[in-house]
Amino acid sequence: MHFRILLSLTCISAFAAPLCFAEKALQSDFSEMSFDELMQVEVTSVSKKAEKLSKAAAAAYVVTSEEIRRSGATSIPEALRLVPGVDAAQVDPNKWAVGIRGFNGQFTNKLLVMIDGQSVYTPTFSGVFWENFDYSIADIERIEVIRGPGATLWGANAVNGVINIITREAYDENRAAVAITAGNEIKHIANISGDYVFSDAVKARAYAKSKQLDGGISASGPMLEAGRKQHNDAEYKQLGGRIDWQISSEQWLTVQADLYRNDINQEHTFPLFESPFLNSLVEDTLEGEGAKIQARWHKITGLDSELQLQFSYDYYDRVDGKLTEHRDTANIEFQHQFAPRVDHEVVWGGGVRWSETEILPSMIILQSVRDDVYSWNLFAQDTVTFPEQHLSLTAGVKIDGFENGDSEVQPNVRASWQPNTATTLWGAISRAKRTPSFAETQVELILETSPPVGLAPLPTRIQVNGQSEFGAEQVDAYELGWRWQAAPNLAFDVAAFYNEYSDLRNYLPIYFDPSVPPIDVIGMQPFIAIDLESENSIEGHSQGVEVLARWQASESAQYRFVYSYIDTQLEDKLLGRDSLVGASQISADEDRSPNHLASIWGAFDLADNVELDVRLFYSGERSWVRTPVLQEFHIDSQVNADLRLSWRASEHLELSLVGRNLLKDEHQEFISESWPVPTQIERSAFLKAVYAW
Questions:
Q1: Enclosing domain of residue 530
Q2: pLDDT tens digits for range 4-55
Q3: Is the pTM of this model over 0.90?
Q4: Of 304, 265, 327, whose CA–CA distance to 131 is shortest?
């Protein structure tokens, strides 16, 4: 029922214009920027207002639409690989793990991801299912990435970073295009979208996208054969649209809607509740569908005063062996920006959020769980400028409140100083919280089964239990940054950080008398029951540095160097660092993200209509130990390369050839933290044709 309603709403906004299918023109406004203009690009995610990136008191980066186009990225995680300090690794052909400043995982929970300022994380795991949304790359204007806490403005879960995917407005003229991509791993991507102008005040755009991916090759693992063609191919379908209405010279309204349907084949190593009682390979299909609608009203209320009101509704339905979930979420948010004095700029606002989640029995979750969650928030931030000293100071705080009466306070203080027009020095002290997920407080799931061993007469099952007393995780972050435009064609951006973490999650066993072990019966089979419970017991710190250098060697050649380093040290405050009990989470949080990441990107205009992009990248080793079964996973450090060659055959047609992972036939990038089946990512190539008119 939900899906039909949202389908109707999307069709209204997407197809109100006759023949409104098409893709954007071949180049966006960002593509025409000079090197100096690129250094002065504005960012909105740092302080919820437009400001020059070069002056922002945060480790910020903007992935422009031109960078996305020239990288050949076909998904948002691929585009995020361009950002310093972001670790984007492919789990299998259809799943990704994306982290900022460590703690990477398929269900990363210390990262806030938004589309047009609206969160897309799932409250079930406090993470993002990247495979569940496959937005039209052609309609992304830019991706703003803030490394470090952003909770003062954006709220809980913006612990290590914020990713805001900003889609473009409709164009001021009728446009249309079709893009087709095909290769050995990408079976096809078809994207058709476009823009229609109803009047001087009303314009619209719409898109439809279809995507099919091939399956991967298995890597070696416990009881798993390497080199086997896997059951993890996928099909995606998505469509949506947007209407921009200039109500008057001082106010405008945007309404946008999207819906999608995914059929993703998967492999898991699920527990087996009959002999031989070992985790066994299971093939299934993730059937996911969802829809969202978002309306945003913006009004200029006076000189240096603006008001914004936003509403969104999101529906999501997922069925697979791991998780069967139905979720509805609604948000209402407002924001007011004004300048009480010439040297003060205040942003304040708040919002309410409602989410209803129902989890049904699956192969690892044996009981249904349902919950309604209501929350509210208020935030305020004041920026004071001292023009004569070329200094700005920012202080802010956000309060997140919950229906049980709990609240979380998240403050920050930032400063930015420009001793000259070419240099910016900045620093920040912030506190951010991650609120508990549904799984950590209420869900019970089976992790492992094992056969009878020694004197044990029964098989054993290991279960992870959420508990209602599990509280918020916390980080206190200290950051310093330096930006320097050394010459008109050479720029550097360096950021360093030190994060102190407390109350991080671990899963610890509920102790029992070994002489009288608890018994659990699943079906007709009794098991010795070992239960693990979520606890706020891990603490520690991380430290690191991120470097970006851009060099415009000539009008036709630009080079970009990125490097990041991180070191994370954690321990369980109840058990210490070396105890095998609870060691899995510490191992994962410390070592699943590489200490070193680096890349070099050369972008060359070989002729007026021929482009060559070459990207060489390095990723350090990853490893973690999965307890209590003591499975050890390790991925070696690796060097690989991507290449893109494009030819603009005419004013309307662009052809490009893209090669991925060219230095290896296949390689492993990441291993899922839950019921893993290791996958190797294969060398691939694809052709893309874009015809715009």
A1: 2-692
A2: 433 333 343 333 333 233 333 333 343 445 566 666 688 888 888 888 888 8
A3: yes
A4: 265
